[in-house]
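Sequence of Prefoldin subunit 6 (Physcomitrium patens).
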Amino acid sequence: MASALKELQAQLENQAASLNKIQKDIGKNHQVRRQYTVQHGENEMVQKELELLEDDANVYKLIGPVLVKQDLAEAKANVNKRLDYITAELKRMDATLKTMEEQQMAKRDEVMKTQQRIQAIQAAQAAKAK
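Predicted 3D structure, token representation.
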């Protein structure tokens, strides 16, 4: 019984460490997703502003410390490509997050079952001692 208890406690520690790792990964995912969401909003604003411009308007792109003249159609295309990329990344991150949350729930269930087994063994040992 004592060896089974030690084995279960080691198993519980491993499961808890794995659960911690999943939770950290979920936190990182949320952080990166927030950044993409902000970028998506900024690019949507740029897209709306570009739509307001006349076809012959001058558009400049900031590259390092220099403003470089850019064709309006090229600027619109670049913003649209960026929005498509960010949207795809957000969808990918949502799918990853869903998977990680499912893993987290499964790992929590494992931890709870292991804890219950440990408690049952401890209760049995306490009953024998009396």
